[in-house]
Amino acid sequence: MRSTSLLLFIVIILSSCSTEKKAIKAFKLGKYQNAIDLFKKTGNTGKSNFFIAESYRLSNRPKESEQFYANASGRAFDADSIKFYYAQALKANGKYDEARQQLESLVASTSNTPLKDRASAEMNGIGYLAKLAEAPSYYKVKNLEAINTPASEYSPVYLNSELYFTSSRGDGKIYEAEGKPFTDLFKVVTKGANVEISSLAKLPEGINDNVRNEGCITFSPDGKTMIFAKGNSEKKKGGGADVDLYISRFRNDVWSEPLPININTQFKNESDGDAKNFSWDSTPAFSSDGRTLYFASNRKGGYGGTDLYTAQMDTRGRFTRVRNLGPEINTSGNEMFPYVAEDAKLYFASDGHPGYGGLDLFVVKRSNGKTQIKNLGQPMNSNSDDFAMFLFKPDRGFFASNRDGGKGDDDIYTFINEDPDLRVVNYYLQGITYTPGKDGKLQILPSTKVNLLDGKGDVMQDYVTGNDGKFLFRVYENEDYNLTGESSGYLVKRQGYTTRGKSVDPSTLKELLTNITLDTMIVLEKIELDKSFVLENIYYDFNKSNIRSDAAKELDKLVQLLLDNPEIKIELGSHTDSIDDESYNRQLSQRRAESAVSYMIQHGIATERLQAKGYGESKPIARNTNPDGTDNPEGRQKNRRTEFKILEVGTVTKPVEGDEQFEEDRYFRE
């Protein structure tokens, strides 16, 4: 009898060990639902509770993780991290006081500085909620019941009276990370928020397939370019273990075969040796002009979790200049689901900024060149995940949430903003690129690349003009910019522009949406050898050659011109009027030219690119005296000038921005 009991005990132990090994393997493979089911069979231990809690968290189910983090333990596990994630689970379940207690305890005890900082930020965020509750809210939300099911519906995008969204509805193959069917992309005809459910359809095969998740779609403004996220399968050619962005174009009334775009990133994880790992690149969104793509990624070099990035689309349809949006927007948590509204405000979801729990919706407002981040408050946000905002009018739109009271998992909601003072003002800067003709009159210069730079000198937008020479940029009130114009055979032109003093008071406007267009022009000079360009306002004290502060400002512009045009070498020529004798004037002008050249060398221009030349009074451009012999002060002033002329045009290899060529280059050349 005792031997039978012992044998049964051994069988149970071996079975438990075998189940635990399978559970750990499932966890490592990211099959979190399988891991949960298996660990629940191994018994209620600190170890099993830890892995179940982690599996729920990593599959985006923090509410379910609470009881398991509360009972998680084990020498191999970091107790501080367990306490932090336990606090987040409490917060997700609306237990703010209990969450604060856990965070206070963690801050007081941990020696992990990054974790302490994040816990402190979470504590401050809980305190921030009380202040947020005091602010008035004009939002009203409603579940879009016609679309939602007990499955997951999210990432709504409205285009041409059709609502596109992601859903796990159906009885397809199960995604083992979450224990749910794979997601697909759908569309349905809507008039605003009124759904014609009979028109509901899945996007065609090729876009969707049954072995990968598809979701998070965005369209260019003309509706002819689609970018969406697709989970990879190692069985698929070029597929990795995570999520990439794919592009398709609408040609001949069909969507082309989707191809991965060139900003997807794969990298090597040092802990895995030579094993390839793919970053998570998802939740794409085009800007309103279709030239900038916003997306989220957990690629290396970010601030933690997933960060928001931008990439610029070039004239070939490839994406370049991938840029992290920086620590004002990105946190050690997760930022994702960016959306740029018509008024250029950036909306996004985050669990790193102060919020109610899970993902909250935030808006980024620009003011005087600075960003302000605001939580949209309740009822737009809850202690659940609230994300994927999209406006189909300035005061109404869609978002997704898995809050209590929905139909099941993630649901799509509609909202309206009834703020009586809501006024949307868009500012645009339009201009034309010109060049002087042979007769001196300005003529349009086509095919010119124009860049809009912010106050830090970073390129915000670029534009290549057509035959009409026109360009257009989205700008913001009370900000300073620089514009640069580039065209082959012409000097790069740089000039400032400010919107300060050019804005309107929204309270004076009657319409909900107002567009204001500002005007400018850029004049590019053709590169011609020995052609002279007069530098305005280069003055010297009488009989002296030192650089005055007002002259320095003008020479700084020439320094910038040479930096912008690294292929040219110039002569800097100084001229005088006819006061004093010719020999003295030539010596004085030479000293002045050399002084200016020395100043430019000190400010970063290579010596071999500069040549100083003093012309004295030998090349007047105006009369020093009038025909009757009297003095001509205006003429003398014109003759006391500094000029530069191009001596040589070399060849400079400029670095090419962007990532390596990918297979889709073939696609873009078609």
UniProtKB/TrEMBL annotation:
Compartments where located: Cell outer membrane
- Keywords assigned by UniProt, alphabetized: Cell outer membrane, Membrane
Return the Basic and acidic residues bias intervals: 633-643
Q: Give GO cellular component annotations, separated by semicolons.
A: cell outer membrane
Domain of life where this protein originates: Bacteria
Q: Which CDD domains does this one have?
A: OmpA_C-like
UniProt cross-references to Gene3D superfamilies, sorted A to Z: OmpA-like domain (3.30.1330.60), Tetratricopeptide repeat domain (1.25.40.10), TolB, C-terminal domain (2.120.10.30)
- Location of the region described as Disordered in the Swiss-Prot/TrEMBL record: 612-643
What would be one Pfam family of this protein?
PD40
Does the UniProt entry include the keyword Aminoacyl-tRNA synthetase? no
Residue ranges of every copy of the OmpA-like domain listed in the record: 527-650
Protein name (Swiss-Prot/TrEMBL): OmpA family protein
What high-level taxonomic lineage is stated for the organism? Bacteria, Pseudomonadati, Bacteroidota, Cytophagia, Cytophagales
